[in-house]
Amino acid sequence: MSERKTRETDTTLTRQRIxxxxxxxxxxxxxxxxSVSAVARSLxxxxxxxxxxxxxxxxxxxxxxxxxxxxxxxxxxxxxxxxASTADNLAALVFTIRSELLKRADNxxxxxxxxxxxxxxxxxxxxxxxxxxxxxxxIIGGAEHATTVLDALRGFIDPDxxxxxxxxxxxxxxxxxxxxxxxxxxxxxxxxxxxxLRPPILY
Length: 203
Description:
By secondary structure, this protein is mainly alpha-helical. It contains ten helices and no strands.
């Protein structure tokens, strides 16, 4: 391997280490408490070294948010099973999104990263949302009702409601909701309702 390739590899690995450390720090301490200096200390390196890879705190947080969203999208894609039922695939999607949020949120303040993404990187956040909508379209067999289904699931996948909906029976409630949505999608009542779904309220 050439010296240039070695330097490039080292730079990439260092960036990845910094992003992972920042992600872990945010999860434990929350977004507001996360600074370049704090992340550097957690890695045993100088803050100047972090700034060599990220020009500002916001640049580092953007990298963390981009990585978080990419991991979530990949996990959601892996959770989809073409031969599974609509209800099972919808439930798997919800469980995957909740799992990705929970493992990065030891401190509820860590979920402020979601709002940071919406404010500071709206195009990336929009693309992330569109990916989720496209996956729902694939699960239910069309895009016509994807937004309504996504709205119906929002109570379980919105970061702001994550802990409010976390309970002993959460998995069962998710399965019930997804089963009801699947039945509605197949029901002849869709014609009577003008093609619109009424999200069932289970909590």
